[in-house]
Specification:
It is elongated, with a radius of gyration of 15 Å. The protein is an all-alpha fold. Helix 3 crosses helix 6 and helix 4 crosses helix 5. The protein contains six helices and no strands. The chain has one domain: Arc Repressor Mutant, subunit A.
């Protein structure tokens, strides 16, 4: 958690983490990480083949946008975005959309 986090938010984050939740600062999802900056431990996260549309959807995930917002921004149906999200999660081996965004950021995909 960044030290600039307001105390009221920090207390809410700590309460959520103490009850089993997970917190990811927005900056961690949006900060581009180049492939050269990857550590040796990230070798298993080689860039899978993404379509240009999947990369656009992935960028929306990294920005924390809802499927509905991504669909509107990319002029597509929400159901199509859901299909892309599932495919992205499968290619990255992610259990959920937040994990997909983090794995993509770590491996330099879509950033």
């Amino acid at each position: 958690m960044p030290t600039s986090t307001p105390p009221k938010i920090a207390l809410q984050v700590f309460a959520m983490v103490m009850s089993g939740g997970t917190y990811f600062p927005r900056e961690a999802l949006l900060q581009p990480i180049t492939l050269a900056a990857r550590g040796a431990g990230d070798a298993a996260l080689d860039t899978p083949g993404f379509t240009p549309r999947q990369l656009q959807v992935l960028e929306g995930l990294r920005q924390g946008r809802a499927n509905k917002t991504i669909a509107r921004d990319l002029d597509m149906q929400e159901s199509t975005v859901k299909v892309h999200v599932r495919q992205i999660m499968g290619k990255l081996g992610a259990a959920n959309r937040t994990q997909a965004a983090l794995l993509a950021a770590r491996s330099g995909v879509g950033g």
